[in-house]
């Protein structure tokens, strides 16, 4: 396999519908002469990058005619969207809320694949030394990453789902996961997202206060997205990306240790901690190659909880034409 450069910011920085009608990748994705692209993934040191890394390192994209050279870390929310639109990067995994806010009608963007469809690892921790924070009812300052991110949506949904008084909670935008951890350690917020692999390696330092999977089974955090024009002019590349991603999800399920070694090499953390993260994420169906209507509906509820007036046109925004054979295509809309 060809050598590839990896870009890494700091480590802190299922309901099935009808099956997709897949075709060959297309003339723009030739396994004998692969096209080379970069992709962007929100919080690439977190679990979102794992299927991308596995597909990249195991040649699953390349076998379909695409070499993913760089996985460019996004900061989450609208920042990753800007990376996709302004950074000459044709495709990536972008937070669902940011897609709806940017282009609810699908005039420019297309959701063309699956992605991170469960709420793991959206867990919010207090410092273990802060004994005043024992439950969600004690939280007064709650950190999230950026506006229009999955963590933004969840910090709006979770208090009501947990029966807490949302009016007593000040939500604090930190700019990123690493920045949130810094504010937590400085005592400026009560709880914040902690990277899952950090929580595995430093359990004595943090206390889990709110675990999103306790309240939501499905939640579309981020999804494979491109522009309408790129999908139209490079359909084979888009299909190849989806095929490789979907095969990577299955590879992770069947051989989590291999995925953990890849993830550990990328992040610099140890393999046992990486394996714990990979196994936990895979066991709850965190990643998927097709569409998941329950995950979409939960994510849309988070968008609406923000007071957004964006009404997504699901039938235009979600395009099943690029999904691999057997992938679920159902969305929460009647597109007949």
TrEMBL record:
Coiled coil: none annotated. Keywords: Signal. It comes from the Bacteria. Residues 1-20 form the signal peptide. Residues 48-259 form the SsuA/THI5-like domain. InterPro entries: SsuA/THI5. The lineage of its organism: Bacteria, Bacillati, Actinomycetota, Actinomycetes, Mycobacteriales. This is ABC transporter substrate-binding protein.
């Amino acid at each position: 396999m060809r050598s590839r450069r990896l870009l890494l910011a700091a480590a802190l920085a299922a309901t099935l519908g009808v099956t997709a009608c897949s075709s060959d990748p297309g003339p723009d994705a030739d396994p004998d002469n692969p096209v080379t692209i970069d992709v962007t993934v929100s919080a690439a040191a977190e679990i979102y990058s794992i299927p991308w890394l596995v597909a990249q390192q195991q040649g699953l994209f390349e076998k379909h005619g695409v070499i993913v050279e760089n996985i460019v870390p996004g900061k989450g929310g609208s920042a990753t969207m800007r990376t996709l639109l302004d950074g000459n990067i044709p495709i990536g995994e972008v937070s669902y809320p940011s897609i709806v806010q940017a282009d609810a009608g699908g005039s420019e963007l297309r959701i063309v694949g699956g992605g991170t469809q469960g709420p793991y690892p959206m867990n919010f921790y207090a410092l273990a030394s802060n004994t005043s924070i024992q439950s969600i009812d004690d939280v007064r300052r709650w950190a999230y990453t950026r506006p229009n991110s999955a963590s933004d949506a969840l910090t709006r949904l979770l208090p009501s789902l947990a029966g807490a008084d949302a009016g007593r909670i000040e939500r604090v935008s930190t700019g990123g996961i690493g920045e949130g951890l810094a504010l937590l350690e400085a005592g400026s917020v009560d709880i914040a997202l902690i990277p899952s692999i950090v929580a595995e390696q430093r359990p004595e330092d943090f206390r889990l206060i709110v675990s999103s999977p306790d309240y939501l089974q499905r939640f579309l955090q981020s999804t494979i997205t491109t522009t309408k024009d790129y999908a139209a002019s490079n359909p084979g590349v888009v299909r190849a990306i989806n095929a490789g991603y979907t095969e990577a999800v299955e590879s992770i399920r069947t051989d989590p240790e291999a995925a953990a070694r890849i993830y550990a090499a990328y992040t610099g953390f140890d393999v046992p901690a990486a394996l714990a993260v990979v196994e936990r994420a895979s066991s709850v169906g965190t990643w998927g190659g097709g569409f998941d209507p329950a995950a979409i509906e939960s994510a849309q509820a988070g968008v609406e909880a923000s007071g957004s007036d964006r009404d997504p046109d699901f039938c235009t925004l979600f395009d099943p034409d690029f999904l691999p054979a057997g992938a679920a295509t159902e969305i929460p809309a009647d597109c007949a």
